[in-house]
Design brief:
single chain, 299 residues, mainly alpha, MetI-like fold, two-stranded antiparallel ribbon, 1% strand, globular
Length: 299
């Protein structure tokens, strides 16, 4: 009976598993294969696709643009994940309170979630237009700036790896990811028994102590999953940076996914694009491995 039940379970899971293998695992494996051959679309008819081993990886590692894109990817993921997690914690705490209009506010928070990234990027490109930007108009009215801030094209005012264009695209990424983070954390907050907070109040704990010693520990599993997913998504992110800046100006917002696209569909070097994609796969695998190790150590 148990064997038949297991066979039925595998049969029910099989369609989803086949889709994952066809649309997820196979492209990753084939990308690794492509990274090991010379696949220059402009020379494919004459040279073919000979095996070159790790030559493509040596090529991208010796390219200064790759190092810049690599650092930008890590920076972009750190800014987006850190900011969106902190904001999500704050907003979820507010939405977890009982007050009039809470349902409407919860619905409003979800608005960025239903806007496609392409549409959202187009809207934010208009918001960041120097001459028409409402942000510049407000800052001018407050007397904080005199000239217009070039949110997406300023390659001059930088502090180390931080630049105005990088902060602008990171802000859009944060805005788009905030609903998911807020909903996840809010679900975690609602699963915490109120008895724990009442016990903490009896022991004299204030609002901060309850947050730090009760809420954060109880949300640990939720935050671990959330941060892992956010880092994986941040490392492989593509849409906002490509649509809003194309990796510019001066490669200040160029990240690995955008560089991979440029190599494939601008330079027609699908082998180098596959090598860059393989680096993204390794980075996301490292993040996932740390999460799995953490979960095993706590189970």
């Amino acid at each position: 009976m148990t064997v038949r039940r297991n066979i039925f379970s595998y049969f029910m899971v099989a369609p989803a598993l086949l889709l994952v293998l066809a649309l997820g695992v196979y492209p990753m494996v084939d990308s690794l294969r492509l990274a090991m051959v010379q696949y220059d679309l402009m020379r494919l008819d004459t040279d073919g696709a000979p095996f070159v081993g790790f030559a493509n990886f040596r090529t991208i590692f010796n390219d200064p643009r790759f190092l810049g894109a690599f650092l930008n990817t890590i920076l972009f993921a750190l800014i987006a994940v850190g900011a969106v997690t902190l904001l999500g914690l704050l907003i979820a705490q507010v939405l977890n309170l009982g007050f009039r209009g809470r349902g409407a506010l919860r619905s409003l928070v979800l608005v960025p979630w239903v806007i496609p990234p392409v549409v959202a990027s187009a809207i934010w490109m208009w918001v960041f237009q120097p001459e028409r930007s409402p942000i510049n108009q407000v800052l001018k009215a407050m007397g904080l700036i005199e000239g217009n801030i070039k949110f997406l094209t300023d390659a001059i005012h930088t502090i180390g790896p931080f630049s105005i264009p990088m902060m602008a695209v990171s802000a859009v990424r944060i805005w788009g990811g905030l609903p998911f983070v807020t909903v996840m954390i809010l679900a975690g907050l609602q699963s915490i028994p109120q008895d724990i907070y009442e016990s903490a109040e009896i022991d004299g704990a204030g609002a901060f102590h309850k947050f730090w010693y009760v809420t954060i520990p109880m949300l640990r599993a939720t935050l671990a999953i959330l941060v892992t997913l956010l880092f994986i998504g941040g490392i492989g992110h593509f849409e906002v940076n490509y649509i809003m800046t194309g990796g510019g100006p001066a490669n200040l917002t160029n990240i690995l996914a955008v560089m991979s696209y440029q190599q494939a569909f601008t330079q027609y070097r699908f082998d180098l694009a596959a090598a860059i994609s393989s680096v993204i796969l390794v980075l996301t695998s490292i993040v996932a491995a740390f999460y799995i190790r953490d979960r095993i150590s706590h189970d």
